[in-house]
Amino acid sequence: MKPVLSILHLPFALPLLFTAACATVAPPELVEARQSYARASTGPAQQLDPAALHEAKTALDVAEDEFKRDATGQRVKDRAYIADRMARIAESRAGVVHANNNADRSRALMSTLAAKQYADLKTTRAALDQTRNRDRRTHEELQKAELELREAATALEEARAKGALTTAELAEKQTEIELAEQALKTEREARLDAEARAKEALNSLAAMAQVKEEPRGVVITLSGAVLFASGKHVLLPAARVALDNVASVLLANPDREIVVEGHTDSQGADSFNTVLAKDRAASVRVYLVDKGVPPEVISAVGMGSTRPIADNKTAEGRANNRRVEIIVSPAERK
Amino acid sequence: MTSLPVRLRSVFSLLAIAATTACASVPLPQDRLTSSESSVRAASEMGAEDEPRAALHLKLAQEQLATAKQLIADGEHARADIVLQRALADSELALALTKEADAIEEAATVHKEVLALRSAD
To answer: Among A5, A64, A182, A314, whose Cα sits 20 to 30 Å from the Cα of B115?
Structure first.
């Protein structure tokens, strides 16, 4: 029986065998593209951005077809390069959706927590209003009582000196003076209590916003991420509760000029940022006016990206720069 | 026998003409060029240079864009087109990575606010 292949065929067969073996080894670009797609297709992109994942699969299929046509050509490397990028784009886009979902969950939780704090604050504020009204009356009465007490004490001393009163009458006058002193002490304590409640309202606000005293006044800084969705100027539900707290503090300090400043990071065109900042400041102003802040004391300005408080080169810095500042003037309006 | 070399010469001439015609018939990839330039610009404006993972792909996109423009100047439109596709893929990845970093940071900011509220409760 004749052998199919003889030693004479080897010089011709060997190169073919080698070629066949080399043709099955994918170029590194294709290996990487396959790995990127495998990673993307088993990750969040499957659920969160299936469209992008599908595009990545299509691109990978094109690369695989090219590999079958010409395993060593440049085209397979180009197609694999593109397929790799598209798989990673799908992963990244899914990452955005995932992060946004987390932010939305956090905002919903904020609403719940802030609503509870606001309910507590409302009770505190109602008590503060009562005390303040009582305090106003009490201040005048206190002054009158102090004057009367001084006059009574002076009269008592004069009478004692002159021996004009009996022992019983002296004792009675002394008791009256002591009672008046006690009433005065009670009213002073009530006033201290009112001041403590006002401070408590400010502390509650400090849990949701940064509150700082600066030469320009008390500056209440609220994060843009809490108030608005990215690129928008409509207030989020969680924002309303935070601003209710702010309104409570502002109404506890009437007759102060208030300025609402909108700030952005440096991404995007300046013209866009200025308009966005102004619209956001206006949204906050409108809300506070609705909550009872007199419109003539509060104004809104858009600062754009002109006053960064952090480095715009980092994502964290950009997040800190996206903010609204509410500045309460230190001086009373004239 | 004498006709074969003539036929061969004709075939070779035809092949040469076909090759030249094929190269010249690939149009200038103007739309792809415009898209790639826009995408690179957008990634840059979004701050891709400042985001470590994105910066690499923005640089690759810019380099490939420059290579493609040179290929166009040399008349190599087909090759330029594929290089532009690579540039576009890199610039879009740079943009996606920048947006992802910002979204993660924003979520972290809101989470910090929740923690602050919880600790005040």
So the answer is: A314
The angle formed by the CA atoms of residues A39, A42 and A44, to the nearest 5 degrees, is 100
The verdict on A93 touching B (C-beta cutoff 8 Å) is yes
Structure tokens at A37: 């797609």
Q: Distances from the Cα of A177 to the Cαs of A112, A172, A173, in angstroms?
A: 53, 9, 6
- Cα separation, A135 vs A278, whole angstroms: 40
Share of chain A above pLDDT 70, in %: 75
pLDDT, one tens digit per residue, over A167-205 is: 677 677 778 778 877 877 887 776 666 566 556 666 666
Q: Tell me which chain A residue has its CA closest to the CA of residue B118.
A: A113
Cβ atoms of A241 and A115 closer than 8 Å: yes
By Cβ distance, the residue of B51, B109, B116 closest to A319 is B109
Q: Which of B53, B99, B106 to mutate to test the interface with A (most CBs of A within 10 A)?
A: B106
pTM: 0.59
A314 DSSP assignment? S
Token representation of residue A126: 């109602």
CA dist list (Å): A279 to A247, A251, A276, A304, B11? 19, 23, 5, 10, 72
CB contact under 8 A, B107 and A208: no
3-class SS of residue A221: strand
Non-local (6+) Cβ contacts of A93 within 8 A are A45, A48, A49, A52, B96, B100
Bridge partners (DSSP) of residue A325 are A221, A261
Nearest CA distance, B13 vs chain A (angstrom): 26
CA distance B8 to chain A (A): 28
Query: Could you report the per-residue pLDDT of A114-157, keeping only the tens digit for each?
Result: 667 666 666 666 666 666 666 566 667 767 777 877 877 787 77
- Tell me if chain A has a CB within 8 Å of the CB of B78: no
User: What is this model's ipTM?
Assistant: 0.80
Q: What's the pLDDT score for residue A167?
A: 67
User: Which residue of A75, A230, A267 is in closest CB contact with B106?
Assistant: A230
Look-up: residue for tokens 């070629």?
A19
**Nearest Cα residue in chain A from B48:** A313
Establish if B74 touches chain A: CB-CB under 8 angstroms: no
